[in-house]
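Morning run. Coffee first, then this:
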Amino acid sequence: MPAHILVAGGGIGGLAVALALSRRRHRADVFEQAAAFGEIGAGVQLGPNATRRLQQLDLGSGLAAIAARPDALAVHSAGSGSELARMPLGDAMQQRYGAPYFCVHRADLHGLLLDAVRARGTGTLVTAAHITQVETSDDLVCLSSTDARAWEGEAVVGADGLWSMVRQQLDSASAAQPPRVTGHTAWRAMAEQARLPAALRRGQVDVWLGPRLHAVAYPVRGGDWLNVVVIAESAPAGDARDWDQAGSIAALKQAMGRSCAGLQALLDAMPGWRAWSLGDRAPLSGAADMAHERIALVGDAAHPMVPYLAQGAGMAIEDAVALADALGDGSAADVPAAFARYAEARWARNAQVQARARRNGEIFHATGAMRLGRDMAMRLLGAKLLDQPWLYGG
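And here it is:
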């Protein structure tokens, strides 16, 4: 008999898990604490490692319809605006890795997954479910919410993000430890490209590197919209758990300091800035950090990472497919062994991405001699330095 699995969290990771499991005939009920399923508007970069797995879930054509396909990645100096390095994307990425490099609106990707899960019809979607307790026995798990509702299943997958409650149930030394607040603040804004001056519109991914900060801009929604994110090392604003705080261009400029005229013009043109404080955890130290008996974690619940490798969503999608593959056509009795196989297969790769993302943050935000060496290396090596075969080919 197929397994009955409870998925805590209805974001991109949780829905990807539900879809992947349903394709293996398992029942996956998804529990979302918000009053409705949805995502806050922001951009997501999906490398070939992520788009390949979405294609495996039969979402290739739907994904192509909602995504932008940037033709290059260009890195600039935030101070002078000069180009430091360039890497072709577009056809070059498709040919090299057998899958495209896409940029999407987070809400569009979430909607694509939600529609696919609903179309499968093999599980229940529950909203306003603020899970406060997980109880396990030899062959059952039970989730309880603040409003005294409870649900039983044969396993639970925690896809409940950085401040995961399900994580606390693992038999791991780090399970109960809070996330690290990094001291980095991110600002984001989106605008229709048609409303921007022609000089500010973009069909590629542009990155600007400056002392203790960097900015990135890329198209989404088939290229019709532009997503801009700036991350600076500044005091966190507001509640660290809230990643949709009101921001302002004034606060952003104060955190950034001076930048080149082109970047400044782009920031001034973007409306509706929002802000959030970045958090992460130390890289995973072993399989016990991802699963124990009938409990498994995916995405940020297991391995939250700073966004300096643009792989948070990608790793969650990889986790979802790997978890379903580990369980295969097995029954409820096979869950503990399958979850153990999943964790063993995933933890080292996720740890590597977490560590590389932290290292990239140091490089992106470098000052002094390290900044000069970085810029020289980028000018000399260009695409060879920017490409990530170990990541995109995985």
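The two ends are 32 Å apart (CA to CA). Good start to the day.
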